[in-house]
Amino acid sequence: MFGGSVATSPLGELRDILRGWDLDPVVMPHVLDGHPEFAYLAGSDAARAGDLTRAWCDPSVSAVFCARGGYGAQRMVDLVDWSAMRAATRSHGPKVFLGYSDITPLHEALANRLGVATLHGPMTAVLDFLKNARAQEHLRTTLFAPQEARVIRAASPGARALVGGRARGVTLGGCVSLLAAELGTPHARASARGGLLCVEDIGEEAYSLDRVLTQLLRARWLAGVAGVVLGSWKECEPYDEVRALFADRLGGLGVPVVEEFGFGHCDGALTVPFGVPGELDADARTLTLDVPALA
Question: Which residues are catalytic?
Fold first, then answer.
């Protein structure tokens, strides 16, 4: 939620950036809403679901950017008019969808219900994007010169192979705690089989991440995954303990795993397309897409 008007909120600065890219940003009606009871929600579930439905179904709209994360994304996902969005996709073709963190359930829903690729990229109205040239430039390249963004190189100086090797698959993922929360819900992805799983999180202590990863393992959701790309783990310190946990919980999968790739809750976050086939080279710390993200 943002206080004040569009002009005085971070949305005003975002609008200026996007206009500099020759885009014509439209702010949906309920972006600045607050919830009457729960301060952690930005407006009602129905209103936010309606905004997403209208934006996706409007043929004059080419992209939907999530201004920031929202604890209510999981609450609204089943209120979206997926039938209307499916019809609009068939009629006008898919469009860009960008967001991360608590937006994970929407990435999953767009993949599973509409079969479209999405962009796991920075929230466009938060300081990590507004004040970071690298994040802006990588998103801009992905949007306007996707052929040049086919090879995604780890952006963090700490990036390294936790388990070496190469793997091929289709990219998917998001906030790992939200992926675990999707288990058992309507239209949830059955498993990550054949996928290059890109995951990150924020504010989770090691025991909590252990519980999440163990749940995914016990549910056999990770069975058959082709490779794993680990992003940022902000406020999940100490990282040495988190790294040991990843080695313990993911090392037994027998697939390449690369850590600290530089996407998610970090400065200069990379934009990583989901739903695109490609190859992970853990030793070279690269993710190479077979086709441009927006082909």
Answer: 101, 200, 265
In one-letter notation, the amino acid at residue 166 is: R
pLDDT digits (tens, 9 = 90+) for 8-44: 568 888 999 999 999 999 999 998 888 999 988 888 9
Q: Give CA–CA dist 39/43, Å, rounded.
A: 9
The rounded distance, in Å, linking the Cα atoms of 260 and 269 is 11
Q: Note whether 116 and 94 are within 8 A (CB).
A: yes
d(CA 135, CA 90): 31
Containing H/E element for 244?
A: helix 239-250
Strand order in the sheet with 195-202: 151-153, 286-289, 277-281, 166-175, 195-202, 227-234, 257-259, 160-163
Residues 144-166 pLDDT 10s: 999 999 999 999 999 999 999 99
pLDDT tens-digit map of 41-89: 888 999 999 999 999 999 999 999 998 877 889 999 999 999 999 999 9
69 in Cβ contact with 103 (< 8 Å): yes
Alpha-carbon span 14 to 66, nearest angstrom? 11
Q: Do residues 289 and 277 lie in contact, with contact meaning Cβ atoms separated by under 8 Å?
A: yes
Instruction: Give yes or no for residue 172 having a pLDDT over 60.
Output: yes
Q: Give φ, ψ of 285 to 5 degrees.
A: 60, 50
Residues in Cβ contact with 247 at an 8 Å cutoff, skipping those fewer than 6 apart: 162
